């Protein structure tokens, strides 16, 4: 049975996980959100390193020493966040040459980097081969052929894994990326033929299999079923080619919205450990790869109230931040538009004195974080925090829209609070633009 949380429980959990006390002002451990906002300015992403570490420790306890953990950098590609995980023996799951660069800068060893993505460009592949990363996770036959062409000019034998698009069943995820016709992965029916081809042609080394069925998965039974199917497939293939690694993906859900359940981490971990024991292959390596689950609850997006106004019968708060910094919190990419957990930095509690519509700084009605939101009485200049913003925040946002500067990012760790991304400047609005004079001679 999957138990659903109420909105208040979800708020309380996130408040605690980021290092605050319910009913008091918003803090990240020893740093109050107000102090961080004063010191680093707003809008600001603030992350608590201790929360990220706690998440990682929970995952490794549940899954045991046999399962390697990879951090999916796209959830939060800040180098300093990557360093937290690298120092805890985690590998990196990347999806572009840029993310390989970030992973290397964060100190991940080349061999611990694994590269997925259905649209790897020549540039990405060349960069991956030059850096001799741990494995390229291929998603089509054509991608394999391209890698072969590129590898012919080097003395390096690329290490490949195959991303499997399984035959069917449920991913258990809010956003599914497998089990039917998809741009991701290679259909299960074609895996055997491709595996034999790779081993016959002998240009690349086939190392193992991978599955990633979707994100925001709350159903550990569905997740374990996919893992079991991948193990089954591996053992079928092993009659023809050795399968040395299995990557079971991740996508574990984080409760953000009213009614979201908790992902049952312990049952997922125990279930996988039992399968691995049954598999009985001590030489095989097993991985899971997580983004959101490791960082979502470690971050908050802070912005200040610029204006308070009443329109018709409603109170509006207009913030100095908006959807250009945090598209996900404005419902972009979601099937249903629902508000993230939002609190006043003065008092994160259920003490309510007004209902407001919370809008961002942009000139579009899409830039709205909540309507009918209950908050303690707020004034202009007060800081508002959007919880659950450590994953898919800035990285998922349409930062160029309306040419506002990008937000700063700060990482809190015990006594320490330091800037990990500089705030953008007004001049950035021109960055990269080439000023054409076609048909406009005389204008400078
Ligand atoms: C995005 C992604 C992940 C991480 O997903 P989360 O839902 O953030 O855990 C893992 N693996 C692959 C292949 C991905 O594309």
From TrEMBL:
Pfam families: Orn_Arg_deC_N (PF02784). Its cofactor is pyridoxal 5'-phosphate. GO terms for biological process: lysine biosynthetic process via diaminopimelate. GO terms for molecular function: diaminopimelate decarboxylase activity. The active site is at residue 363. It comes from the Bacteria. This is Diaminopimelate decarboxylase.
């Amino acid at each position: 049975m999957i138990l659903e949380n109420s909105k208040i429980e979800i708020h309380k959990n996130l408040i605690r996980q980021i290092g605050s006390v319910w009913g008091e002002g918003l803090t990240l451990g020893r740093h109050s959100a107000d102090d961080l906002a004063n010191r680093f300015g707003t809008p600001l992403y603030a992350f608590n390193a201790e929360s990220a570490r706690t998440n990682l420790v929970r995952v490794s306890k549940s899954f045991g020493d046999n399962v390697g953990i990879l951090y999916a950098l796209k959830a939060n590609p800040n180098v300093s966040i990557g360093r937290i995980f690298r120092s805890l023996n985690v590998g990196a799951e990347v999806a572009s040459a840029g993310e390989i660069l970030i992973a290397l800068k964060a100190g991940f060893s080349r061999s611990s980097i694994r590269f997925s993505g259905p649209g790897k460009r020549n540039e990405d592949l060349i960069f991956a081969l030059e850096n001799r990363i741990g494995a390229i996770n291929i998603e089509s036959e054509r991608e394999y052929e391209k890698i072969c062409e590129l590898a012919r000019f080097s003395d390096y034998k690329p290490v490949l894994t195959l991303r499997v698009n399984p035959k069917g069943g449920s991913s258990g995820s809010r956003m599914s990326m497998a089990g039917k016709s998809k741009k991701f992965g290679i259909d299960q029916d074609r895996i055997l033929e491709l595996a034999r081809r790779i081993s016959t042609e002998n240009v690349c080394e086939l190392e193992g299999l991978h599955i990633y069925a979707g994100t925001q998965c709350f159903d550990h039974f569905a997740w374990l079923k996919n893992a079991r199917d991948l193990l089954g497939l591996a053992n079928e293939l092993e009659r023809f080619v050795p399968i040395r690694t299995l990557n079971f993906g991740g996508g574990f859900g984080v409760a953000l919205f009213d009614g979201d359940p908790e992902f049952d981490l312990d049952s997922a971990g125990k279930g996988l450990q039992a399968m691995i024991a049954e598999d009985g292959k001590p030489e095989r390596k097993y991985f899971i790869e997580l983004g959101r689950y490791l960082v979502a609850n470690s971050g908050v997006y802070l912005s200040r109230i610029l204006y308070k106004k009443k329109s018709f019968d409603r109170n509006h708060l207009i913030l100095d931040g908006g959807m250009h910094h945090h598209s996900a919190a404005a419902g972009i990419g979601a099937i249903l538009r629902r508000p993230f957990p939002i609190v006043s930095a003065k008092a994160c509690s259920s003490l309510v004195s007004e209902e407001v519509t919370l809008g961002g700084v942009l000139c579009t009605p899409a830039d709205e974080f909540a309507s009918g939101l209950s908050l303690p009485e707020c004034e202009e200049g007060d800081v508002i925090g959007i919880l659950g913003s450590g994953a898919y925040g800035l990285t998922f946002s349409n930062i160029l829209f309306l040419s506002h500067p990008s937000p700063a990012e700060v990482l809190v760790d015990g006594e320490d609070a330091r800037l990990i991304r500089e705030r953008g400047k007004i001049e950035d609005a021109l960055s990269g633009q080439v000023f054409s004079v076609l048909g406009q001679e005389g204008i400078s």
